[in-house]
Design a protein that fits this description.
- The longest helix has 23 residues.
- This protein is of the alpha+beta class.
- The chain is globular, with a radius of gyration of 20 Å.
- The protein is about 50% helix and about 15% strand.
Length: about 375
């Protein structure tokens, strides 16, 4: 078997830009501010489909400590510059009360094409995600791990949820972002492929028919990146705290190495149908980790805490290898105190109980998000 991949790490986060006075998203931020971001951060910052959003991406990192330092710098720069314009970034998958029909799209060729293609579905994309790239240069290994790692996507989503609100309403879902994103084509749990060649042949059919320009238009929860030799995990909501982001990124990295180790020992994770994985995906989307997920080997719903203990035992060797025991162990803290979605809902309910109006309670949630996004920078 070929030598071990480096499993390099890259993290992309999307943020909303909010007005500190109104707490609403800024639908048309000044070009001077966006230009300042690009001067300070270069290719590590990009304007998103909607003008109310901004995206950052770390450099290619070899350790979680390196990723932490880079992400802190990126978040800190976005917050510092925004502050001079009376704004702040919030790392959250849906804004508590922003209206999708009030948003403006970024005037760039690719985004104009997207808007034309997606129409109303595209205009509703007032959502922010967390994407984690893990470097796996070998094409065949990348496809093999794509097939196996899909099983764990709902488990990762459950730790990240941050989108319980949509346009001022409690949706009852911990990750409403997925409901919005799933309106688009070519989303959801990835297909399974027998080889890299089979994957490329499928892409070629779509490209040849003029349906897509390239594989960047495959918006699956996990995909081989078209731009880099990586597997890109995309199912997760944007995490409000930086430590939650790093914990999930470290966990995903360790899971891929664990699956690689199995392959090295002529073993593999059992492959389950997309139908079954999608049941867990829905449970994570609806309940987060509150109601457990299905263990398909046992054929029953198991409390998430038990599943997490099993996962942490499976990847212990890998966490030691990467020096990220503390970061993957942080998943237990997420479980104990709740994800951003749990904490937003608690903040909202507390404000209502103390006599706040519904709008003031939503504003209190935004204030909490502003503080948590900038914490520990």
């Amino acid at each position: 078997m070929k030598s071990e991949p480096e499993f390099t790490l890259g993290i992309e986060e999307e943020y909303f830009l909010v007005d500190r006075a109104t707490r609403d998203v800024v639908t048309d931020p000044p070009d001077a501010m966006l230009a300042e971001y690009e001067t300070l951060l270069g290719a590590q910052v990009s304007r998103e489909f909607l003008r109310s959003q901004i995206e950052v991406g770390t450099r290619v990192c070899t350790s979680i400590a390196e990723a932490r330092a880079d992400l802190r710098r990126l978040r800190g720069t976005i917050a510092s510059v925004a502050g001079r314009y009376g704004m702040a970034p919030v790392a959250v998958a849906t804004h508590p009360f922003a209206r999708w029909d009030a948003q403006r799209t970024t005037e760039r060729g690719r985004y104009r094409s997207l808007e034309s293609d997606l129409q109303g579905v595209g205009r509703r994309l007032v959502i922010c995600g967390l994407h984690v790239h893990i470097g796996i240069p070998d094409d065949e290994l990348r496809i093999d791990l794509l097939n196996q790692a899909s099983y764990f996507l709902p488990h990762l989503l459950a730790l990240s949820t941050s989108s319980p609100f949509w346009q001022g309403e409690n949706t009852g879902l911990k990750s409403y972002r997925l409901a919005v994103f799933d309106e688009m084509p070519r989303t959801g749990t990835p297909e399974r492929f027998a080889s890299w060649g089979e994957y490329r042949r499928h892409v070629a059919i779509l490209v040849g028919a003029g349906l897509i320009e390239d594989a960047t238009k495959l918006w699956w929860d996990l995909r081989p990146s078209e731009r880099f030799p990586t597997l890109e995990m995309r199912i997760t909501d944007c995490c409000t705290t930086i430590e939650d982001t790093l914990s999930i990124a470290a966990l995903f990295r360790c899971l891929l190495r664990m699956l690689w180790r199995l392959k090295r020992e002529n073993q593999r994770w059992r492959l389950y149908s997309r139908m079954l994985i999608d049941e867990n995906r829905w449970r994570a989307q609806r309940y987060g980790f509150d109601q457990g997920l299905v263990d398909f080997g046992k054929g029953e719903i198991v409390p998430y805490a038990e599943l997490l203990d099993e996962i942490l035992a499976l990847i212990d060797q890998d966490a030691r290898h990467f020096g990220c025991l503390e970061e993957v162990g942080h998943t237990r803290e997420i479980l104990a105190r709740g994800t951003s979605a749990h904490r937003q809902l608690a903040m909202f309910d507390r404000a209502l109980a103390e006599g706040a109006s519904r709008q003031d309670a939503l504003a209190a949630v935004v204030d909490w998000l502003i503080g948590e996004t900038a914490r520990r920078l």
